[in-house]
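ingest -> validate -> predict -> emit
validate: passed (alphabet ok, no gaps, 279 aa)
predict: started
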Amino acid sequence: MLATYLIGLREGLEATLVVSILIAFLVKSERTDKLKLVWIGVAAAVAVSVLFGWLLNYTETTLLQDFKQQELFEAITSIAAVCFVTWMIFWMRRAARGIAGELRNKLQDALAVGSLAVGFMAFLAVVREGLETSLIFYAAVRGANLDGGPLFALLGGVATAIAIGYLMYATAVRINLTVFFKWTGVLLILVAAGIFKYGVHSLQEATILPGGNEIAYHAASWLDPSTWYATLLAGMFNITAEPTVLEVVAWFAYAVPVLVLFLWPVRKPAPAPTPAAQS
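emit:
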């Protein structure tokens, strides 16, 4: 539940920030008549995202009856989710500072094109986050005991993100988004490492990768699945008591280099020299 709450919070806040920038620009430009088009685009994006999540579940549970096919499908969706998470956190780190200006320019161009372009732009801005959320959520809850908790946690994360976005838009509340995205990015990398580990496990179950019976370690004595901390580690980062050797290798092979690259300081471009300095 903590993992899916984090996914909802992170993805939800990105979508909320995008929508709030679009709304603020329309209000300041005295084009409030176009706000309904933004909301129509947002609603359509949410509907497509929910449909995509349902389609993923329907494909596995109904269309795929063979065990190996189901495991292969889970592996493909898990690895795809890891790719989306990795791309998303690095993109946000690079584009966070200039995203407001970029969105305003695109919206200005959309207003010049016509009303439908405004709604379509809002749709594109939100549907990307929605599709990512559906895929990552689906991959994160594979193998979990689904009693509705993970879904409620995801919705809770989205609701928290909307509340934060509203407070930032309507009041003087300010949040250090650089710090927020940095540390949620670190946690999401660890979550993605667990999803990648699960993808490798599914490939072993489908007999595509070898080593399904080669257990790396037996830690049930101190990582008892019935304890709260074992449940937390398994639910957040997929750290389990008896993983295979290849699963452990996959977890560290993803987590270590990606964390290093993500936390590596970004060099700021040197300012252009002034005419006096050039002379």
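DSSP finds ten helices and no strands in the chain.
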